[in-house]
Structures are given as structure tokens and as C-alpha cells.
Amino acid sequence: MKIAMLTTWDEACGIAEYAHALVDALQPLVEVKVVPIKHGMRGAEYFKSLAEACNDCDLVHVQHEYIFFGGRDPWNYYWPHFIKALRKPYIVSIHTWLKPFTGGPLWKRVLRALRDGVYALCGWKHYLELGQFNHAKKILVHTQAHYHALQHRGVNTERLELVPQGVPGHIPEGNAEAARKKWSLSGQVVTILGFLIPSKGHLLALEAWKKAPPDATLMIIGMPFSQADEVYARAVTQAAQAFPETVRLTGYLEEQDLSDLLAASDVALMPYTGGTSSYALSRVLAQARPVLASDIDYFKEVFSESKCLVLFASGDADDLAARLQILLGNEAQQKRLSQAAAQWSAERSWDKIASRILKVYTEPLS
Q1: Class of domain 176-346
Q2: Cα atoms in the Cβ-side hemisphere of radius 13 Å centred on 173
Q3: What angle (nearest 5°) sits at the alpha carbon of residue 209, between those of residues 295 and 294?
Q4: 162 vs 155: CA distance, rounded Å
Q5: In 63-143, which residue ranges form alpha helices assigned H by DSSP?
Q6: Nearest-5° angle of CA 271, CA 168, CA 313?
Q7: Which residues on adjacent β-strands are paired with residue 289?
Q8: Are strands 138-141 and 291-294 parallel, antiparallel or unpaired?
Q9: What angle do CA 205, 206, 212 make, to 5 degrees?
Q10: Which candidate, 222, 272, 220, 265, places its Cα nearest to that of 247?
Q11: Which helix H or strand E contains 147, and what residues bound it?
Q12: I need a labelling partner for 105 at 20 to 30 A (CA). Which of 7, 58, 232, 297 fits?
């Protein structure tokens, strides 16, 4: 059996990192051909060429994110062109749970609501949520919440597979002292890892940081995901300027520098306002860091599986600030969280995840 893996590749993208780890774990078990999809590409011919590159394989595994295929608008969405040219069976891993955009000024929220209403009336909303995957042999999701949402919307459970994200295993050993020296860090360190996009909650964290311990430093690790996120990134940068001594933006970090800074981190903060899963969380837990996270569905799911993180009320800067102060002042709790994170990570090794996905591969062709 030969698998075509359609995914972003060799770029700063959580899904690209996910795919790299999955391919590395699969290759001893099955032949895998990586078909890279370049973020930001447009035009029907490009997506037809991707399908042609997949057609010499037995099965295609698509790592799906709406923006990879142009976004959510019908005139810029190229998934139909890809599927029309694809001649082999395929399964799809859905990395984004399609939910309404939130936040922004009132005029933008009104325009979004009007647009979403039009899309619902003409059937485009249903197509984006479900219709485009009608011919997928299997639909893979990472969380129970996503699984049950698709089930509620009418997807046959025989086509659904719940396969959690794997936890990075082959990461450089972190050197906390190296990070402290490089960044001139003293006192406690709090990190936020992830793209500078609104759903990551950086602005909420900066609002809460007004009540942070004076000796703590907040390190914001990441960069905008796309050109459309540059406005948000500038807003984060501007808000961070209120804390010139205690907040720093690092931009994108290479793996060794990331491992070093996480090793120096007393608490990793995940103030997300939404999301179906988080490779950033997996990356942080892989280094057994204590985590303070918002109580969105995915983080509540992780909490129910293992008490490896502390939750705060999503969108509540005061609750975030209060719980952060408590956690930073409780070394015993940090140690318990670190131990639970190490155990949670061990149970989600990529070897185990790859074995589960290999079983999925064999079913459509049997």
C-alpha cells in the first residue's frame, strides 16, 4: 500500500509539524509519499496538480484546514477543484472545527453575521461543514467534542474516527540556563506558544498581566499565521509595550531555542478563546511543563483525561490573573502538573497514534 499525504510541509505551521511526526512514525509501517501543499496558493490548476500528484498512490490522506484551500468564501475555495481531479479514495483529518468568527469591531461582526446568513441560505455553510467530505472514506477528528458535533450533524459514525494528536517525541533536550542567559531572564517565566492569531488569546493574557507578580516575565513565542493576521499581531505588539520590562515577543523560534525557553518556563499559558485541538499544547506537555489553560472544550477534555493542566474561565482576565498568581506561588502544584504531563504525553506517543491510523488506512481498501 502506498499513501499520499497531502499536507503543508517544511514551513512554520502546526499542521506541518503534526504531519512530519505522523509521517516519521508511519514510514516503518507503510510507504508514504508526501505531497506538499503551499499555504497561500491560489488557482484551480495548482490544486488540480496536487490531485494528480496523489493519483499514483493507493489512498490519499488529506490534512485539511480551510485556509490551505483558499479560505471560506466560495469564489476562493479550491477544494472542489482538487476533489474533481482526484481519482483515488481518500480520508481526511479535519484540523479546524468550523465555527463563526468572533471578536473585532461591531461593524465587522455585523458583516460577518450577514455573510454567514447568506452562506447558510444558499447551502454553502452546509457544504463547508459537511458536504465537501461526502466522498471521504473516513473522517478523522482529534477530540470527542468534534466527533459528537459531526455525529449530531448527521455524519454516520462508521465514517468517523477519533484519533487524538500525537505528542512530539524527538525534540531537543531543553537547557533552561541557556535560555535564561540568551533572554536575560531572572525570576519566574511564563510562556505563550502559538501563532499570533485572535483565537490564541494574547490580548486577554496581556490584560491579565497587569496583575502579574512583578518579578515574572511573559515570553510570547510565535508569529502571524498569515498576512491577514498582521493587524492582530500589531495589536499584540502595541499592548505588550505597556510592559517594557516584563513582556517580550520572540517571533518564531527554532526547535532548540524553543526547547530551551520552555525548559526555563515555570508556567505555560494557553488563553485560547476557541479551537478544536492544539499542537502547541502537545509540544508544551511533551516537555512536561505546568499549563494554565482556558476552559474551552478541548482543554476541558484534556483535563478530564489527566489533571495535567489548570483551567480558568475563558475570556475572564481576572480569573486568569488570579489562577496564574496561585500557580506561580505553588511549586508543589507545578511539580504535580509536570508529572501528570509526562504521563499524558507517554500515552500519546506517535508510534501508538500511527498504529491506530494505519488500521484506518486498511479499512477503505478492504
Answers
A1: alpha beta
A2: 1
A3: 5
A4: 13
A5: 79-85, 106-122, 124-129
A6: 15
A7: none
A8: unpaired
A9: 85
A10: 220
A11: helix 144-152
A12: 297
What is the DSSP pairing of strand 291-294 with strand 309-312?
parallel
Give CA–CA dist 294/316, Å, rounded: 9
| Cα-only R_g, the chain | 21
Q: Looking at the predicted structure, is the pLDDT value of residue 99 above 70?
A: no
- Sequence ranges of the domains in the chain: 2-166+349-365, 176-346
- Which cell goes with 126? 452546509
Q: Return all residues near 27 (Cβ < 8 A) that are at least 6 apart.
A: none
Tell which residue, 23, 59, 156, 5, has the closest CA to residue 363: 59
Largest CA distance in the chain: 62
Query: Quick check: do 2-166+349-365 and 176-346 share a fold?
Result: yes
User: How confident is the model over 125-172, as pLDDT tens digits?
Assistant: 777 777 788 889 999 998 888 888 888 888 888 899 999 888 877 789
Please return the burial class of 229, using the count of CB atoms within 10 Å of its CB with bins 0-12, 13-18 and 19+.
middle
Cell 499524558 -> residue: 344
